[in-house]
Amino acid sequence: MSLKQTYIILTEAIRERAIAALKVLPLGMNVVLQETTRSLAQNAALWPALRDVAQHVTWGGKSRNKEQWKDIFTGSYFKGEYVPNIDGTGVIALGVKTSTLTKQEFGELLEYIYAF
Q: Is 84 within 8 Å of 77 (Cβ atoms)?
């Protein structure tokens, strides 16, 4: 049996439905509580900001596209780790995926981009 239910606690009624669901779960089930990740509005704000930076700023002597700027900003703000690539001709960023950020973290990233 595969059971997956998600409750985004926005109202007391939703909280009560989540509590009721917990009460009837069989023993041995996993329950995960986590902050809500980025909102659609936050995600929608990210790409125009990155596009604006990509159109007006060069980095490392080159124009960068919005995907590259996303990597630059997330690696910089969240202190990503950079490791040598396989053939030793450059580096690879090991960092944060924006899809896993909480709303607060995503908001901080947007503010970081706007401040830049």
A: no
Q: Which is it for the CA torsion 83, 64, 107, 77, positive or negative? A: positive
In DSSP terms, which residues pair with 82 in a beta bridge?
93
- Which amino acid, residue 87? D
* pLDDT the model gives residue 2: 64
Tokens of 112: 């970081």
pTM of this prediction?
0.67
Other CB atoms within 10 Å distance of the CB of residue 106: 20
